[in-house]
């Protein structure tokens, strides 16, 4: 018998939310359902924040509240506890991107070290995550990715990036905390892939501490996964891999068009879905040497993973399989999986409102552009409100 939970059980999905909170969430998703409004507000908000106009409080009470835990770690405590009470791990995500000064990168490194310690103290399965662009200048990653020559100063700058990453992964290894390295734009990803591989080889002995991320909207990632599986077998380390579809669709396609090169992305959504599902299938086949985090809000992919686990007779809480969703999205998947004993986590971003804007804009665009995503959230909330009224 399959162990797949029903993702339409709204009583379980929303048991942590009051009726008032559900109505608030419905309003946010309704607003995000209008592409015109999202594009207009995105431009307006960016301009207003740059001009230091006092609009922070509007953002903090609306979209920030829906998708982020707070501005500081301490503000996330109640959300963190609520998730844990429902058997869901919170992965605190310091969502500061696009910095450019060495002092900023060092500050992010210090914050990440604190996150590692925090995870060790508070989580059942201590896990954290990071973006390499939090500790490195975008342009230096771009230069390394295109194999351009670095000046003496740039060589030193890149050595500083490596030493910051090394400090974080070393601490994670010492404390047994897993660290997911996020995937970003394809034109800096070669550098990120190399850094992640070096850290995995160094710190993933008999279990995965460092995880790399593969975006299956890229047409070359299934092949890369096969290469990584081979490399980990040859070099005797456990591969840690987070599989996602990818968050920079428009940006990738626009850049490819502007610069006249073939898009690195799949030709269709279907092709992305096929590779996503093929990737999780391949990983489950190699589950003795690969650890998986399936980061997805797609019900079919989550169901497929449950079925694959069941076919291979893996227990729901198998230590090498994690499901993960973003905070504020797809509680129907997270809470129903956790209810059936699967390992579930939610990325819980936090950081100063202005610095989380790139993250919030991606969430707004994702919920606007994906047919069905926003509608599905609204349908589920409406059905739960009806159920409660009865
Ligand atoms: C825990 C977690 C961690 C994450 N980490 C990362 C990360 O490190 N890097 C990152 O980039 N993203 C990351 N994401 C975001 C993730 O990429 C998006 O949330 C995800 O793409 C949404 O897809 P879905 O799997 O939920 O499924 P769906 O909603 O079914 O798929 C939507 C996705 O399909 C793809 N798609 C849509 N239309 C097309 C098309 N026409 N052609 C090809 N592909 C298409 C896009 O990737 C789109 O986002 C993470 C998400 C989670 C939950």
What does this structure look like?
The protein is of the alpha/beta class. It has one domain (10-389): TIM Barrel (Alpha-Beta Barrel). It contains 17 helices and 8 strands. It has helices spanning 10-13, 19-32, 35-50, 56-61, 63-67, 77-85, 102-122, 138-145, 152-175, 186-203, 221-234, 249-258, 269-285, 299-311, 331-339, 357-369, 373-389; strands at 88-94, 127-130, 178-181, 210-215, 239-244, 290-295, 321-326, 344-350. Strands 1-8-7-6-5-4-3-2 form an 8-stranded parallel β-sheet, with helices on one face. Helix 15 links the parallel strand 7 and strand 8 (344-350). The longest helix is centred in the middle third of the chain and has 24 residues, at 152-175. The model has no long low-confidence stretch (mean pLDDT 92). Bound molecules: flavin-adenine dinucleotide (FAD). Residues 182-183, 213, 215, 217, 244-249, 265-266, 268-269, 272, 295-298, 324-326, 347, 366, 370, 373 line the site of flavin-adenine dinucleotide (FAD).
The third-level CATH topology is TIM Barrel
Number of strands: 8
Small molecules bound: flavin-adenine dinucleotide
Shape: globular
Q: Which structural class should the secondary elements be placed in?
A: alpha/beta
Q: Can I get a quick summary?
A:
The protein has 390 residues and is of the alpha/beta class.
State the main characteristics.
TIM Barrel, globular, alpha/beta, eight-stranded parallel beta sheet, about 400 residues
């Amino acid at each position: 018998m399959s162990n797949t939970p029903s993702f339409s059980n709204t009583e379980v999905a929303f048991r942590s939310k009051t009726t008032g909170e559900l109505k608030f969430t419905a309003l946010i998703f309704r607003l995000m359902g209008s592409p015109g409004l999202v594009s207009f507000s995105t431009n307006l908000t960016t301009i207003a924040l740059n001009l230091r106009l006092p609009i922070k409080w509007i953002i903090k009470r609306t979209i920030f509240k829906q998708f982020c835990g707070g501005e500081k770690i301490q503000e996330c405590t109640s959300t963190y506890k609520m998730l844990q009470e429902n058997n869901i791990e919170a992965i605190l995500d310091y969502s500061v991107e696009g910095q450019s000064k060495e002092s900023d990168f060092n500050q992010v490194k210090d914050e990440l070290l604190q996150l590692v310690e925090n995870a060790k103290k508070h989580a059942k399965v201590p896990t954290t995550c990071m973006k390499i662009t939090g500790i490195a200048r975008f342009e230096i990653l771009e230069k390394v990715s295109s194999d351009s020559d670095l000046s003496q100063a740039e060589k030193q700058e890149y050595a500083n990036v490596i030493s910051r990453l090394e400090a974080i992964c070393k601490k994670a290894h010492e404390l047994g905390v897993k660290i997911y390295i996020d995937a970003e734009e394809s034109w800096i990803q070669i550098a990120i892939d190399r850094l992640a591989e070096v850290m995995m080889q160094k710190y993933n002995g008999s279990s995965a501490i460092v995880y790399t991320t593969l975006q299956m909207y890229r047409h070359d990632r299934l092949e890369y996964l096969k290469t990584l599986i081979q490399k980990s077998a040859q070099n005797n380390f456990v591969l840690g891999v987070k599989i996602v579809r990818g968050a920079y669709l428009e940006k990738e396609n626009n850049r490819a068009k502007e610069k006249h090169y073939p898009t690195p992305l799949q030709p269709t959504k279907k092709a992305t879905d096929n590779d996503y599902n093929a990737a999780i299938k391949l990983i489950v086949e190699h589950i003795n040497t690969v650890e998986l985090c399936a980061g997805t809000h797609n019900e079919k992919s989550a169901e497929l993973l449950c079925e694959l686990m069941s076919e291979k007779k893996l227990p729901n809480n198998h230590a090498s399989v994690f499901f993960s969703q973003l905070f504020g999205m797809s509680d129907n998947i997270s809470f129903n999986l956790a209810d059936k004993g699967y390992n579930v986590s939610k990325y819980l971003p936090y950081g100063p409102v202005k610095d989380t804007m790139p993250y919030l804009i991606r969430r707004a665009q994702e919920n606007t552009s994906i047919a069905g995503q926003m509608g599905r959230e609204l349908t589920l909330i409406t059905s739960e409100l009806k159920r409660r009224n009865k």
